[in-house]
Amino acid sequence: MTVTADEQAAHRPAPDPVAETPCLVVDVAVAEAQYRRIAGAFPDADVHYAVKANPEPALVRRLVAAGCRFDVAGPSEIDLCLDAGADPSDLSYGNTIKKAPDIAYAYRRGVRLFAFDSWAELDKLAIHAPDASVICRVLASSRGARWPLSRKFGCAPEMAVDLLRRAARLGLDAAGIAFHVGSQQMTPARWEPSIAIAADVFARLRAEGVNLRILNAGGGFPVDYLARAAPIQDYAAAIEEALVRHFEFDQPELMIEPGRYIAAPAGVLHTEVVLISQKSYGIEPRWVYLDVGRFGGLAETEGEAIQYRLTTPHDGSGRVGPVIVAGPTCDSVDVLYERTRYDLPMDLRVGDILRIEGTGAYTATYASVGFNGFPPLRTVCVNG
Prior knowledge:
This protein is an alpha/beta fold and 384 residues long. The protein folds into two domains: 28-264, TIM Barrel (Alpha-Beta Barrel), CATH 3.20.20.10; 267-382, Lyase, Ornithine Decarboxylase, Chain A, domain 1 (Beta Barrel). 28% of the residues lie in helices and 24% in strands. The protein is built from ten helices and 18 strands. Helix 2 (28-41) runs parallel beside helix 3 (57-66) and helix 7 (157-169) packs across helix 8. The two termini are 38 Å apart.
C-alpha cells in the first residue's frame, strides 16, 4: 500500500520546540495561576499586570480571559492588550515619561488613566488627554529590593501635592498617588513608609477640596529564585495593616502592578553548555560557558542581583563542584555568576542542556538584537 506524503507527515514526531537553544519556554497556565494567586491575596485591589515583564501575546490573552487589568508603558503595549481583548478602561499608562503623540494616541484608543511625576508631563496630559484621570508618582525607598529602582521615577511628596492641585485646576481628574518600592522586594514592611506618605498627601489635598481616591502600590512582589521569598499573603497582610493604620476608615481604592510575580515562574530558559574550562592547573572553579548570557536576556544578573536556579541532566547523580557561569559573547562583562556560590555536577559536559528556572520575566524583553551576531532570545509559549 502506498503511503502519501501527508500521511507520513501525520505520523512524524512533532519537532522539539527547544531543540535549538537558547529558548525561553513560557507556560501561560502558570502565569494565569500566579495572577489568580495574587488576586486572591488582594481581593479588594485592581491587579494590573506590568506588560513590560513579558509581553508575549499568548500570555496577555490568557490574562485578559482571567479578568486581569494591565499596566502599559507605550503605544505598542496598548495595541497588544487591546488586540488581546482588553477593554481600554482596564489599561493604566504607568510610564511617567511619554511623548505627546503617544499620550494623544493612548487617549484616542480609549485609555483614561495616566501616571506622571513632573510639571512638563502634567502640561502634556492636560493638552492631549483632557479630562483623563491622573496619578502622581512619588519617590520611594527601594531598600530590601534585589533589583532596586533609582530616582528616575517619582517626585517629592510636597511637589506631588502641588502637581495634583494643578491637575484639578487644569480640568483633569486628580485621582491619586503611586509609588514603587523596587523589584523583587524581599521586605513586606517596605510598603508601609510610602503608604504613610500617600495618606498625608491625600489628607492635605482633601483639606483643599481635592479628593484623591486611588493608591497605586506598584509592583515589586517577589518570587523564589535561589533565595525563597515570603508568601504573597505576608505582603498583602503588611499592606492592609498599613492602609488601616494610616487611612483608618477612609480607605483608598487600591491598585497593584505585579509583573515579575506573574510572569517569572512561568518561564524556563533552556541553554546549552558551550564550553567548560579552567584558567590554570591550580584548584579553582570551572568556568561554564552557556549559549545565553547578559546580552541574550539575562540582564538582571548585573551585579548578580537576580540569582536564578540552575538545573542540569546530572542533578543528584554524583559529586558537584564550584563553577563560574558566563555567557558566550566576546565581552568581558558577560559573566553571570562569579561571587555567588554555584555548584554544578562534575559530570557536566559540553552539549548538555541546562534549565534556568524562573526566567519568565525581564529576559526576552531585555535581549539585545544582533550583539556579536547573536539573535534575540526565542520564546515558545505552551498551554496557550
